[in-house]
């Protein structure tokens, strides 16, 4: 049986019944039980995703009418997003403790996780749209989860309105593609797209632009990024981690499936668009990050800049295989680093009550584990060797040279060096500057376990990146495979 | 004749949509929203899609619009938040018009007008078979999506008790 078809009843079933715990349990048991159940469900889901390729070789039968394609590409992305969801759920054990509506928080988290992992496997535009909404709608609510916090309300409203608009543009693009090709299945579109008459070419370009705009919203590409800093700042910080490391990655897999498989005839049109978008996204993200005063906004802009790096790989996807390998590699490394950074920020925010950068002064002595993991994550984000961020950026920039876009590679390297400025600045504040207080702060177990585990992944894949690289390479070759 | 109906429906849909947004009295806004949704059903009939038209009427006009009108009447307040129409709004209107004109020009640039619809409207049975057989998984996920929206909406709407 296909992995996505097992995930639907598994995660969906738990998520639907989770709110009942609100009625069944009282007091502390309520949060405890629902969080453990969510973590367990995600662990089982991860096991299901890993189990299939171990026992039976993936059936690379891209049936022409199928909604899902059970390939390594989907596997790779669903592993990444489920891992992020698991890290977020585990650290929420402490972060959400004693807050109202805990079971609903975990229920919505599982719905989002299901939507993201289904997106990874979807090869039908209708399925993509439905999974996209299943991923998005719970995050609108999660962003506004602090009901009595005006900032959280504002963030949710902004995210919701722009999110609805982006879903609308995606739907518009999809309906144009369906009108042009007569199919919603990506592989059938591939076959039909060579037969689009010239007189309809302008409609095809319009469809592509609408899809870039709609997907770019979630991928946080620059002209569509306005909501990101506000949403990340207002949302519970664990949810910021989910948005930045999870939903964004799921948008990239959709972009790969649609732009690389389904619309290659339009290649010349989108390559330059993507190259320019990548350039302005990383440059603007990095420059804006430098001027931020709170950690959540800084990480939000840094996350925008990172999306620019990933887009480099997508730009040269058709010239060199390295492009997509770089995308996958950086999706993985960025997911781990960004989750670590955001979760460390969440812990500090919860314990000190502040998110402004001044409160990070001297935190290194007060919260040693958190500060250490944060430092590793930030250095990895900057691309310092031998951490994993260095290797994935190396692959991305090399692919740009391979795709005859040397200027893009140069811009990427310059941006990367530039970004070290603000990442290292936080590290300096944590260890060298003196804070107002020196008392030790208790670091709860769920958080430290998650942070240490993620840090080990960052260092381990930095020292020995070969397996991930190989996995990414296989996933890319499975993409077209038996089409 | 279809052209005339199309133009009439378009004018109706656009004017009621604008009125729904701009009306000072919320009840009128809700009613004009209902009329807008009804004229959408008219478009679907013109497009030979009676099945979609039927559902548009049942779901949007029958349920959604009525719900909105009831909600407006139940939580009626004298003062509604009014956003001052300033520079930003003017820029928005001009931007929207520009995008609309650009889309229209793109459409005119193609040979879309010469396309002749082929075949007849799909029967209800065909739609049902396709929906269950080919898109069964999507239908399941859609059900989960509705559940998720409902759970989220209930969470946002509920008043948190003190235990």
Shape of chain B: globular
What level of helicity do the residues of chain A show? over 70%
Number of strands of chain B: 0
Structural class of chain A: mainly alpha
Q: What name is given to the CATH topology of the largest domain in chain B?
A: Four Helix Bundle (Hemerythrin (Met), subunit A)
Question: How would you describe what is shown here?
Answer:
The complex is a heterodimer of chains A (483) and B (163). Chain A is mostly helical. Chain A has a domain at 269-483. Chain A is built from 20 helices and no strands. Chain A is globular. The model of chain A has no long low-confidence stretch (mean pLDDT 87). Chain B is an all-alpha fold and 163 residues long. Chain B is 74% helix and 0% strand.
Q: Can you lay out the helices and strands and say which pair or pack?
A:
The complex is a heterodimer of chains A (483) and B (163).
Chain A (H helix, E strand, L loop, with lengths): L2 H15 L3 H4 L3 H28 L16 H24 L6 H20 L3 H19 L6 H32 L4 H7 L8 H19 L7 H8 L2 H26 L4 H24 L4 H21 L5 H32 L10 H4 L1 H15 L5 H15 L3 H26 L13 H19 L2 H15 L3
Helix pairs in contact in A: 1-3, 1-5, 3-4, 3-5, 4-5, 4-11, 4-14, 4-19, 4-20, 5-6, 5-11, 6-7, 6-11, 7-9, 7-10, 8-11, 9-11, 10-11, 10-13, 11-13, 11-14, 12-13, 12-18, 13-14, 13-17, 14-16, 14-17, 14-19, 14-20, 16-18, 16-19, 17-18, 17-19
Chain B lengths: L1 H21 L3 H21 L3 H25 L12 H22 L15 H10 L2 H22 L6
Helix pairs in contact in B: 1-2, 2-3
